[in-house]
Amino acid sequence: MIINAQQTSEPRTYLDRILEHWHKDEDAEALVQGAQRLTRGEARRRLFRLGHALRRQGLEPGDGVGLFLANRVDSVLVQLAVHLIGCRVVFLPPEPGPGELAALVEQSRARAVVTDPLFARRAADAAGRSIHAPELLSLGPCEQECTDLLALAAECPAVRPDGVPAPEGDEAVTVLYTGGTLGRPKLAAHSHRLYDTLVGLVADDPQDSGSSFFPTMDPGTDRVLAATLLTHGSGHLTSIQALVTGSALVVLPEFEAGAALAVLSEERITATMFVPPMLYALLDHPECVPGALPALRRIVVGGAASSPSRLQQAVEVFGPVLSQGYGQSEALGIAAFGAEDLASEGHGGPSSGAAAVARYPTPRSRSVVKTARRRCPSRQVGEVCVRGETVMLGYYEDPERTAEALHDGWLRTGDMGYLDAEGYLYLVDRAKDIIVTGSTSDNVYSRVLEDFLLTLPGVRNAAALGVPDEEYGEAVQIFLATADDADVDPDAVGAAVTAELGELYTPRKTVLLHQLPTTKVGKVDKKALRAEWTGAALAMS
Ligand code: AMP
What we know:
Helix 3 (73-84) links the parallel strand 3 and strand 4. Helix 1 (14-23) packs across helix 2 and helix 2 crosses helix 3 (73-84). The chain is built from 16 helices and 28 strands. It folds into three domains: 14-190, 3-Layer(aba) Sandwich (Rossmann fold), CATH 3.40.50; 205-431, 3-Layer(aba) Sandwich (Rossmann fold); 434-540, ANL, C-terminal domain (GMP Synthetase, Chain A, domain 3, 2-Layer Sandwich), CATH 3.30.300.30. An eight-stranded mixed β-sheet has the order 2-1-11-10-12-13-14-15. Strands 7-6-5-3-4-8-9-20 form an eight-stranded mixed β-sheet, with helices on both faces. Strands 16, 17, 18, 19, 21, 22 and 23 form a seven-stranded antiparallel β-sheet that branches. By secondary structure, the chain is an alpha/beta fold. Residues 178-179, 233, 302-305, 324-329, 358, 413-415, 427, 430 line the site of adenosine monophosphate.
């Protein structure tokens, strides 16, 4: 193990890079959430104190610390503090079922769990079920039996904890939960190389829009809004990229379109990231008009597929500031599609065809499309496989599932797509969302169907699912969120789908809703739709 130097001329970790900013211009704003505003100096001292407070709980380098947190400034700082003392960050999802949370705590071998006071009861329940009996710490006073980490930190020295070994190359420093936690949870483990890549990208080539979500145009003057969950890859990446570039980070506790617009405007936000339903909700807000947010110069939309027509609408409202980020918990920041490309019609942008899929250059992480381990020729659909520094080490303590996902250094993403002759990557669907139907068992790409549905008047959001069908195995069922005053006729929708995409895509059933359910991360929750609506009784068909 190498011992980290206290002060080095060249920052060597992402934390060194952040602290380098936080040692300069100490009165500049660093972290904001509502009325809570921390300068760089205050943020630095609070971070050091939290590091010592965690150590006083007996945590040692290499120990796992579960983070069961809401979007708050102190959540950002405690995550940094866990890394500062050489421990492993284990992100826990915000609303797991009790069994799932206990399984995550168990599988991650967390020695401590830091909880938001609001979640303390559930955290205590999960910790109590774990044979590792993790210490329970709370970010503020709470009713459960747990130590108030903030109170403890207030009594600790505001100097950097020393003697922290640098992480080994293959050591898991961050563990992210991923979907599909039926039974055993899946935890994507990343090494410090993920962060080194972020720091390297920003330092080496600030103009490169590669897999860096926020190339800073004016280092140090950006104001970034973390609107997605800090404990999910999207929010984590957003916050780290903001801080390593010396930007001020504003944290949005809970997404609601009106509140988000107010914060974007009042805080003069220059860059942010949204998952698609957040972007759509903003676009549907009456105060979201061209020119409303003059400071905004970068919006990354990603975490799920976004519809070309909605992206086009966003470009019209916000200007050429939209870019797309494609990634997953197993490989953060796989590729980005730049704002200029997305705004220009002639370059595969959103208006280039209703059913067109998004298009991404893949400069940083290499991507190929494969079928049964063979590389597909251009334009043939296969599974997207990626390799590079941002690909996980594997699933934590799960060699079996790691072996299924990683082959010779290539990660199978579970996403289906194709590359064109220029090497641009088009995503067509998540493999598990493809609907296999019709007399010849053909593929219906739910994403292609959703993109088309979103071009229809009155349709605000759309989801397509395959439901069991005696004749064809699966049949297409669609869910449309419609505008209040819209009079959407399911038969007309079906006819429009047939005319544009053919018989195979024609929905067997259509359900009209005011809103589609979303996960806590903000993505459309297809599992919830399936559970609630694909039974016998349907409100509308
Ligand atoms: P998660 O691990 O929860 O972040 O989910 C990752 C999945 O979301 C990916 O495997 C993709 O299926 C999907 N996804 C993320 N970003 C995009 C994007 N920009 N376009 C299309 N799908 C995306």
